[in-house]
Specification:
By secondary structure, the chain is an all-alpha fold. Helices cover 75% and strands 0% of the residues. It is globular and about 80 Å long.
Length: 375
């Protein structure tokens, strides 16, 4: 790619997403005006609902935790040229792994059962991603099709297990018994109380830090290891990877399994820490929103962290907004989220040609000025 077709990294991953976000917010403000509401008032309620008080902050970061796991899952696969949209199914199987550990080993010490549950979510998620990965690597089956199919299979499998096998005796509700208290992951307000700090109760828990650790681990893996170099080479040019002696099948299978493990770890937050049991449809669409989070974050861990927090703000602030202003319905919040996804994802490079022209015009002007001064 020529220099004229590229932008500095700070523009590509910083300024350009910011411009897209501002444009999406502007369109959302116009929609709010059309229905007769004040966009400034609506924005104030949304921001206050997400960041204005302790419980709101807790819920915002709780939602962000889910988006972090699924966004990282999509990003890892994307670096290898893969599009894993099976996060929902992989999260379901991760929840199944956690349930099997927590229900079958109720007397283990918390220092043993919690790590076991976390490992089980990652292992079962990776296992569910392995089959589409194998089919892509060995049979050429496109991972988009296979992961969609495996989402449906996982949903059906989970319904069957929760209704006929794992549900408590005397009930046909699609859920399991509560997990043992030994497996409870500490909530943030409980942890802060150990140090004498009062914080309103919320679902926010230690899984948030686990997600941040996974983001750091992804950065190390992709940009600081030989395998990460192989992943990026495979994603950039499979033929170049083959020419360099990189096994494409190995990279595809391992990367998809890592992606599935990250998606499976969504169950740590939802099943182990918050619900404290396995319930039907706990993934709640987080797997699909993770695609937008990864696109918005340019598949970089820092960007994904910021995008996850933004979507957490939209989820929590939107809930308060729908309560405070009845004309702003849940569907309206979904519309605003959709606009942001549209401009940050599908139309992320809408302004790139303009930015290229502006940047290279300014750069050429500075170059001509420098030449003139030198002469």
């Amino acid at each position: 790619m020529s220099d004229k077709a590229t932008l500095p990294r700070w523009i590509d991953i910083g300024l350009l997403p910011l411009i897209n976000l501002i444009f999406a917010i502007s369109i959302s403000a116009a929609v709010v005006l059309i229905i007769g509401e004040n966009p400034i008032e609506v924005a104030g309620i949304l921001i206050y609902g997400a960041l204005g008080y302790e419980e709101g902050i807790g819920y915002t970061l709780y939602y962000a935790t889910n988006f972090l796991f699924t966004g990282l899952a999509v990003a890892v696969a994307f670096h290898a040229g893969l599009f894993n949209i099976g996060g929902e199914g992989q999260a379901y199987l991760g929840g199944l792994g956690a349930a099997l550990v927590c229900l079958n080993f109720p007397n283990l010490h918390w220092a043993i059962i919690i790590p076991m549950a976390i490992i089980a979510t990652a292992f079962f998620g990776a296992l569910w991603a392995f089959i589409p990965a194998y089919l892509r690597a060995k049979r050429g089956s496109h991972e988009v099709i296979t992961t969609i199919m495996f989402n449906l299979i996982a949903g059906s499998l989970m319904s069957y297990l929760l209704i006929y096998i794992l549900s408590p005796e005397g009930t046909n509700q699609p859920l399991t018994d509560r997990f043992t208290p030994n497996s409870n992951i500490p909530k943030m307000h409980d942890m802060l109380s150990w140090f004498g700090i009062e914080f309103e109760s919320s679902p926010l828990n230690m899984s948030f830090f686990l997600a941040l650790l996974c983001a750091f681990g992804m950065w190390v893996l992709i940009w600081r290891t030989r395998f990460g170099y192989a992943v990026r080479t495979q994603g950039f040019s499979p033929s170049a990877a083959t020419y360099a002696g990189i096994s494409s099948a190995k990279v595809i299978i391992i990367t998809m399994c890592i992606s599935g493990a990250l998606a499976g770890m969504l169950a740590v937050n939802e099943s182990v820490a918050v619900a404290e049991r396995l319930i039907i449809e706990f993934a709640g669409g987080f797997g699909f929103v993770g695609i937008a989070v990864a696109l918005m974050g340019r598949n970089h861990p820092v960007g994904i962290v910021l995008a996850s927090i933004l979507f957490g703000i939209l989820y929590q602030g939107g809930a308060d907004l729908a309560f405070e202003i009845p004309t702003i319905s849940k569907e309206m919040i979904v519309l605003i989220q959709g606009l942001i996804i549209l401009f940050m994802g599908a139309l992320e490079y809408m302004f790139k040609p303009v930015m290229l022209n502006v940047y290279h015009t300014l750069a050429s002007g500075q170059s001509d000025t420098s030449v003139g001064e030198a002469s």
